[in-house]
Here is the input.
Amino acid sequence: MRILIADDDSNNRTVLQGMLSGYGECDIVVTGKEALEAFIMAHEEKAHYGLICLDIMMPVMDGNEALRKMREYERENGLDGPAHEAKIVMATALDHPDDIVNAYHKGGCTSYLIKPITKKAVMEMLKDIGIVN
Here is the structure.
């Protein structure tokens, strides 16, 4: 499985990569724009990401906008629905209920992790979204 980690904080990227590298090849980007570009390129190369972790507060393009554009790309290319769409997890310090509702209902995220991220939380999320048993 290919995994994309998008976070502008190097410590957060390192922590997530350490926790997820045992489940697949991890690519790292720093902005939402880079995440969207990597997502599209992966589809064009027929090597899509099975898991994407997006921070919300990133420069150039925030994670919510990147999420919406990824889901739009999937719809436009017939890749939407549980069988085809990427599992996209918002990994962010934003824990206000409005932020969480916005990510799920307006953006279409698969799951939501609140920082600081723990190994236990990541394992539970991976189980909840069907990546591990």
